[in-house]
Structures are given as C-alpha cells and as structure tokens.
Design goal:
The chain is α+β, with helices and mostly antiparallel strands. Helices cover about 35% and strands about 25% of the residues. The protein starts with 8 loop residues before the first helix and ends with a strand. This is PglZ domain protein.
Length: about 600
C-alpha cells in the first residue's frame, strides 16, 4: 500500500534503497521466475533487465512476457530510465519475433509477387511490415538512451544483434521478391493497386461528386508508416488503408509523376545529353512545378498547392485559399531531404514527427470544410545502420544517364555481379533505356559518403507505399455545461535529470450530463524554454500513441508520462503544457520550473 500511495511513494523509494544498500540485496542471486512480479527493491528490476539483455531467458516470447509485466509495475512507472530500457528491449524482442514468423512464411512456400505483397501488408494475418516498424522504433528509442548507466554495454550488444538479424532478413526478403519479378510480371499484377491509378481512382471521384479533397503527396513514406498514421486518426466518418506498387525505379521523379496521372497516358523517358526527362503524353513533367501544372490542367477542378507546414496551423491567407480550392495538393519533402543529407538521427526524429504533423493538418483542414483526404507517397525506403556498408557493387560500364545508390539508368554495358537488369519497357515506359538494380541490400559504388538511407531499388520497403483514404466531417467545437479541470504535477520542485516523469490528470464535475462528455481525451505534453520546445514525451503509464507522441487521458485517472530533454539542455527555467490534440487548446500549464541537470 505504501508504494501505491502517490503522495508518499517517493519516501518509499528512499526507504527501499536504504534497506537494499544495508543488506546488499544487489549482490544476491535470484531465480528469475521467483522475482518476475517482485516490486520491493530496484535491484529486482535491474536483475531482470540484465537477465533479458544477456538472454539468460532463451525463449524470446518469455522475454516479451517479462517486458510486458515489468512495464506496468512500480519501478518502471516511477523511474523513467527503467521505463525506457524496457521499451527498447520490447522493440528488439518484437522485431526478432516478427522476423522469425516472416522467415517461416518465406521458407514454407514459393509465392507470386502479388502474394508476397499481401504477406507484407498483413492480408494473410502475417504483417511483414511490422518488422520494419519495430526496427524504426528500436533505433529511435535507442538514440535517446545515453544516460550512462550500468546497462550501456549490454544494451548495445543486444541492439547490435537485433540490427544484424534485421539486415540478414532484409537481404533474404529482397532476394525472395526479386525471384518473383521476371520481365513483364510487374505489369501483369491486377490484384494490387498501381501507383499510377491512385489519383484517378481515389481523388477524381471525390472531385466529380462536388467534394473537396486534400491529396498528400509525401516524398518518402513506407507502408508501415502509413499504418501508423491510419491508426492514429480518430474523429473520422470513415477510413481505409490500401497499398500500392510504385513505378520503378523508386526515385522521386518517377514516383511523383505516377501520383500525378489522371488517365492511362504513356510515360516517355527522354534523354538530353546525359540527362533524363519525363513526359506524360506530350507534356513535360520532370519537376515539381511541371507536375503541379499537369495535375491542375488535367483534373479540371480549381487546384491549389500547399507545403505541409502551411496547413498544420494555417494562417488567414492560407485558410482563404483552402476554402476556395476543390483540390488541395499537400507536399512534404522533410523525410527525403533530411535522410539524403545523411542526418540520420534528425531524420529519424522527423519521421516520428511526421505522423503528428499530418494528423494536425487533417484536423485543421477538416475544420475548414475539407471532407476527403488521400495520403500516399512517391516511394518508400530502406533504412538501417548496416545497409550497404559491406555490399557495394560496380557501376555498369554502359552509357550512364542517371545513377543512384540503388539504380543505374543507361544503355548497354555489362551486368556487374549481384545486379539484375530490366528494360524500361518491361515496366511500361516508352524508352529503350536499361534499368540495373543491385540485388539484396547492395548499393552501387557512387561518389559521396556512406549513408544508412536508400531508395530507388527493388525491395518491398521501397516499392510498396501506403494509400490512406479518410473521410472527415467538420464538427463544431463541443461546449460543455461546466468546466473540466486538468492538472500537471512533478514529483520534484527542480528538474535534475534529462529523463524525468510528470503526472497528468483530467477531472470532471459530477453535475455534467454524461452524454455530452468525452470519457477520453487525446492530449500532448510539451516542454519549453523561452518559447522553444526542448523535449518530448517518450512513453506513459497508459494510452501512449507512439506514432504521434499523443497520450490518452481518461477521466479521473492519473497518467505518468516520461519526458526526455534534448541533449544540449543543462539549466534554466522551463514551462510544461498540456495541449488538446484536436482543438490545439492549452489545457494546463506549469511555469518557471527550475532546471539544473546533474545526471
């Protein structure tokens, strides 16, 4: 009972640590099964963490059970470091378990490309895409783990093993997909949506029925990320997610052109000197401006274009433009531009933020009268610390018109080892050019430094993109007959650790009519210094949405939120705010919290 009382739980921690030190409990040996539910001492938590990292429990499913159990118990809820470690271990274990399940599917039978895609998106209760999701989350959380405790080396080894298993799995998976792609097979698939049909089949019907549609053309978004966005959007009338096979090669000019097509026009690849150009029918569509003009002309509806940042919280001028337009084209290049520049850590953070930004944009546009939303991408990508380092292949010795890490476009030449060659016409282009792709996770030897982000080639991660179709109805802001109250509390007056917790709560007066109340609130916790955001929520006791960093808050039920500050923040005075995710209104705020990092 002492532990469960929030008003004196800190005193319990002090007393437990004192007894633990006095009787040297950390030096004792324990049987894992006997302590799995133990909460008395922090030493038990550390013994179990060490046991999992050393894989003394051989069965990954049993490690998973330990993680699930410990995340909900006392020490993980009170000590943010333990919570983060369990989260990372959980992602590693889920990654490896899903790899095992996917490998069983691959080894059990020979599949067509169509069936392989269905296994990837989970149509057969498989969901190979989850391997990519857990890898991304593992790396994102591990990047935050630099608190310098006794688990650093053991956790690093655990992560390296997970990375190696992921890399080996992708090589097998890529080769498996390539084996199903004989010349012409891509064009013969009629059970999977093709990228070139997205605008025609998903956007144009809305416009023809006098509806307003926002068409998100994202530069680089994997299918697994589309699933995250799909599940994060609430307050909608209807939502569906599909997959689409991209045009090959999986580069921006080819993918964005496919997303712009409103009819079954032929695509021509033109060469001028040593440069490529693309045409849809007689119209040149090689860059962003040309594609926007092409869409606007062919759709025959009033069209306007916005960058994602403009519609996250639209200004008056933007709101007026939104109201006038029938078709809103929303573009986003954040992921591709950052990843291409080699800024891996920042790129991963942007990847995680993109879900929240798109969700906010959807809600704000819905308030302005937009009812239909289609979110898709020009291509996906491969991402991993082991990608391409040991598998570099020679560039074909023919005439080169375009060269990327994962595709060569040219005429003639040899077929270097570990590559595969197609004719452009194999993929429906009007051209006599050749496409040469590296096999497995290999990359071409190109100028520039190493990177861990690639696209252009043939892998499920690169060529299967999401199509998220959402129907929203503008809803008036709810008015309640009495005031709701929100609270933010800290366990200490001063923030001394880069990782710390706050408790948030949502109370409602009993006189309110139950029918008009939301039993749950979706909120965000933000932390500022001088109006600059300096940290983020990383997990919570319940209801944490990993994709958007949003938190479900239930009436009259406390929720403990773990916050991580940015690396460069050491001292100052900070503000913590609680924000309504739907309305963007500030629900609660604590100002002038002293910050002096000692750990």
């Amino acid at each position: 009972m002492w532990r469960k009382r929030s008003d004196i739980s800190d005193e319990y921690i002090k007393s437990a640590n004192k007894v633990q030190s006095t009787y040297r409990i950390s030096a004792e040996s324990f049987d894992t099964s006997a302590i799995i539910e133990g909460e008395t001492f922090a030493a038990i938590e550390e013994k179990l963490i060490e046991c999992c990292l050393n894989e003394e429990i051989k069965d990954l499913s049993q490690i998973q059970e330990v993680v699930i159990k410990r995340k909900s118990l006392f020490w993980a809820s009170k000590m943010a470091e333990y919570s983060l470690i369990w989260l990372i271990i959980g992602y590693c274990v889920n990654l490896r378990l899903h790899i095992k399940m996917a490998l069983k599917d691959i080894k059990r039978q020979t599949l067509s490309l169509s069936d392989i895609v269905k296994y990837y998106i989970g149509a057969n209760n498989s969901g190979w895409y989850l391997v990519d999701k857990f890898y991304r989350l593992m790396e994102l959380k591990y990047a935050d783990f630099d608190i310098g405790n006794t688990f650093d080396d053991k956790l690093e080894r655990f992560i390296i093993k997970s990375r190696e298993e992921y890399s080996k799995f992708l090589s097998i998976q890529v080769d498996y997909a390539l084996s199903s792609m004989q010349s012409g097979k891509m064009l013969a698939i009629d059970t999977i949506m093709r990228q070139k049909n997205i605008f025609r089949n998903k956007v144009l019907p809305v416009l023809r029925e006098k509806g307003k549609c926002a068409y998100f053309m994202v530069d680089s978004l994997r299918y697994e990320m589309g699933e995250e966005l799909f599940h994060s959007v609430e307050e909608c009338e209807k939502k569906e997610i599909f997959c689409a096979l991209t045009n090959l090669p999986t580069t921006t000019p080819f993918g964005m052109l496919a997303l712009s097509l409103s009819s079954d026009e032929s695509i021509y690849i033109q060469t001028t000197g040593k440069k490529l150009g693309l045409k849809a029918g007689d119209i040149k569509v090689s860059n962003r401006n040309e594609r926007i003009k092409y869409i606007s002309h062919n759709s025959q509806f009033y069209t306007d274009t916005f960058k994602l940042e403009e519609v996250i919280k639209p200004r008056k001028a933007v709101r007026e433009k939104v109201k006038k337009a029938d078709l809103l084209i929303i573009t986003s290049q954040e992921i591709d531009s950052l990843c291409e520049s080699g800024q891996g850590l920042l790129a991963r953070q942007v990847m995680n933020n993109i879900f929240l930004q798109m969700k906010r944009a959807i809600y704000h546009l819905a308030e302005l009268g937009v009812e239909s939303f289609v979110v898709t991408a020009d291509h996906g990508f491969l991402l991993g610390s082991e990608m391409g380092k040991d598998s570099k292949v020679d560039v074909p010795k023919g005439k080169t018109f375009d060269l990327h890490k994962r595709v060569w476009i040219g005429i003639g030449g040899d077929n270097p080892q570990n590559t595969i060659r197609f004719k452009a016409s194999d993929f429906g282009y009007k051209s006599d050019l050749d496409f040469v792709f590296p096999r497995t996770l290999a990359v071409f030897k190109t100028p520039g430094g190493d990177n861990e982000y690639f696209h252009g080639g043939i892998s499920l991660q690169e060529m299967v993109v999401p199509v998220v179709d959402i129907k929203m109805k503008p809803s008036p802001k709810k008015k309640y007959p009495a005031k709701e109250e929100y609270y933010i509390t800290l366990s200490k007056d001063t923030i001394t650790n880069r990782i710390f917790t706050v408790t948030i709560m949502y109370k409602v007066e009993k006189l309110l009519i139950p029918e008009v109340l939301d039993n749950r609130k979706m909120v965000r916790v933000k932390i500022f210094e001088n109006k600059e955001e300096i940290g983020r929520a990383e997990t919570s006791e319940y209801g944490f949405e990993e994709a958007t960093k949003e938190i479900v808050l239930e009436q009259n039920k406390k929720n403990v939120v773990t916050i991580i500050l940015n690396d460069d923040i050491m001292e100052g005075s900070v503000t913590i705010c609680l924000i309504d995710s739907i309305t963007e209104l500030e629900l609660a705020k604590v100002d002038d919290i002293p910050l002096k990092i000692t750990i």
